[in-house]
Amino acid sequence: MKVRLLLFAVLRDIVGTDERELEVADGSRAIDVWNGLRAAHPRIASYERPPFTAVNQDYVQPETMLRDGDELAFIPPVSGG
Amino acid sequence: MKVRLLLFAVLRDIVGTDERELEVADGSRAIDVWNGLRAAHPRIASYERPPFTAVNQDYVQPETMLRDGDELAFIPPVSGG
Amino acid sequence: MSYLTDSPIDQPALVARVMRSSDGALALFAGVVRNHHQGKSVESIFYECWRPMAEKEMAKIEADVAAAYPDVAIAFIHRLGLLQVGEASIVIACTSPHRDEAFAACREIIERVKQTVPIWKREKGPDGEEWVGWQGN
Amino acid sequence: MSYLTDSPIDQPALVARVMRSSDGALALFAGVVRNHHQGKSVESIFYECWRPMAEKEMAKIEADVAAAYPDVAIAFIHRLGLLQVGEASIVIACTSPHRDEAFAACREIIERVKQTVPIWKREKGPDGEEWVGWQGN
To answer: Is D52 within 8 Å of A80 when comparing Cβ atoms?
Structure first.
C-alpha cells in the first residue's frame, strides 16, 4: 500500500526531503517507517521513537497502524509562540 | 491644634464637604475625628471605624495620634482599575 | 511620568515605553467600562481620584512589583473623568525576556491597584447615578 | 478566519474582533522576537509552519479554551516567515466581563500553542542559522 510521508523543519533538513511517496507492506506501523529513516540517517539513528507523529493531521502514537493513502508526518518538537 | 480633613467620593457626598480645617484637642486620634462625623451624619453613624484612613497620604490605623498640621483623609473603599 | 490621565489611554505609546529588544513577552491588561454591573445596566462611569495619594500608591506598586520581578519592564496608567462603555479605564503593560514574569507582574499590578489606589467610580445607568461599592447606610 | 498570517500582526484589529460592550477586561499576550536565546545573540527568526495541521490544532485550542471559559471572547494569530527582533510572532487577545477568566484563557492559549502547534523556528545570529530545540544528534 502507499502512504505519503511529510517531514518538516530540522527533520526535513536531516532526511533531505519534505515529502515522499512510500510503498509500505500491509500491516506497517508509523514506527516502521521511522525505523527505515533511522537506518539511513545517522543524526536520528539513536532515536528509537520519533519526536512526534501525525497521521492525517492528528497526533498519534508511533505504533499506529497505517492504511493505504495515509498522510504520515514526523514532527520535530514544536517551537512556535 | 489644627488638622486638615479631606473627604472623597461617597463620603464627601454624605458629609457634604470635601475639605475642612478642624481644631482638635492635643492627643486626638483619627478615630476621634471619625466619631465626630458619625455623630452628625446618620448614614455613617453605624460604622465604628472608617473604611480607610490616611494621614499625610499614607494609609494608617484609625487609632493613629494626630499632630498639628496633619492632613487626615477618610477614604471609602476604592473601586478603581 | 504620571500614572494618571484625563485623556483616552494611548495603548501603543504605553507599550512602546516598556518594549526592549531583550523582551520576548508582552503581557497587557486593560480594564474597560462594561455595559452592566451586578445586574444593572451601565451607560458611563465617572472616575474620581485623590491624585497626589494615587500617584504615590501607584509609584509604590510599581517599585514593589519591579523589585519582585527584576526582569520586567512596567508601565501603567489610569484614566479619570467620564468614560463611556468600551473605553479603557486602566492599561497595564509588562514586558520581560520570558512570559511567566510578564504575566505575573501584570496580574499583581491590577490586583494591587484595585486594593489601594484612591480612585472611586460613580456609575450612570438608565435609573440614575450611584457610587459603586460602599455607600454608608 | 485563519490563525496564521505572513504579514505583521494588526493588534488593534485583533482586539476589535473580541471586544464586546459587556466586557470589562482585556488580557493580551504578545510573543516577540528577542535579541538573545540561551546566551546567544539573535538577529532574526524564521518561522516555518505546517499550515493545515497548525490551523486544525489552533482551532482545537480555541474550542477547548472557549468551552473551559464560556464568558471569554478569544482571538489569536501566529505570524510566519522571517521576523526581526522586536516583531510579534503571536498575539492573543481575550476579553471577558471579569478579569480572572480573561487572564486564565490567555495564559492557557499560549501554553497550548507552544505544546502542539506545528511551528518551528530557525534562529539567525552572528554565527549563522540554526533550528531551535531538538536537532537530532
So the answer is: no
